[in-house]
């Protein structure tokens, strides 16, 4: 399993290098991914984070406001992916599959008014590290 991942990572690394200039403005997720992410978000994240569109000062962290954008500005999507995969939902960390995690990232991008595209967002951190969050 690990060997396969490393082999794929080597291939993806070359791809990532080619995509190094890629940005969340380039349409890096599909609407299908964002729709699935929306359902997951509603079921597992909304209780703590509130809606992406609304401003609720009482919730711990918002995923669609200026603070969130400033914190993630210029950082690769792989870091956001890993935080969600490892730490969220805070009451059941580690319970999301990689596909669910990438769907949530897609939904967060959509919630930040970033465009969707034809190519699905990849669920591997090497490819995601080539995409900068620069809304
Ligand atoms: C039980 C409450 C709770 C749930 C459920 C929860 N979160 Fe969180 N989340 C938090 C808290 C509190 C923080 C801020 C502190 C921290 O980073 O640990 C946070 C931080 C985050 C951050 C970093 C925000 C930033 O501004 O940098 C992301 C991204 C995130 N959560 C995504 C999710 C996603 C996606 C889900 C649903 C799968 C989820 N969270 C479910 C409580 C929760």
TrEMBL record:
The keyword Metal-binding applies. This is Cytochrome c domain-containing protein. One of its GO terms (molecular function) is heme binding. Residues 32-112 form the Cytochrome c domain. InterPro entries: Cyt_c-like_dom, Cyt_c-like_dom_sf. It comes from marine metagenome. Keywords: Heme, Iron, Metal-binding. Pfam families: Cytochrome_CBB3 (PF13442). The keyword Signal does not apply.
């Amino acid at each position: 399993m690990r060997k396969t991942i490393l082999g794929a990572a080597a291939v993806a690394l070359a791809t990532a290098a080619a995509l190094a200039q890629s940005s969340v403005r380039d349409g890096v997720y599909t609407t299908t991914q964002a729709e699935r992410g929306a359902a997951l978000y509603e079921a597992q994240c909304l209780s703590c984070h509130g809606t992406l569109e609304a401003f609720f000062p009482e919730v711990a962290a918002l995923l669609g406001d200026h603070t969130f954008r400033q914190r993630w500005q210029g950082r690769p999507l792989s870091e956001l992916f890993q935080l969600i995969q490892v730490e969220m939902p805070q009451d059941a960390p580690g319970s999301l599959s990689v596909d669910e995690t990438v769907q949530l990232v897609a939904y967060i991008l959509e919630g930040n008014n970033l465009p969707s595209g034809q190519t699905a967002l990849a669920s591997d951190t090497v490819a995601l590290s080539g995409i900068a969050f620069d809304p």
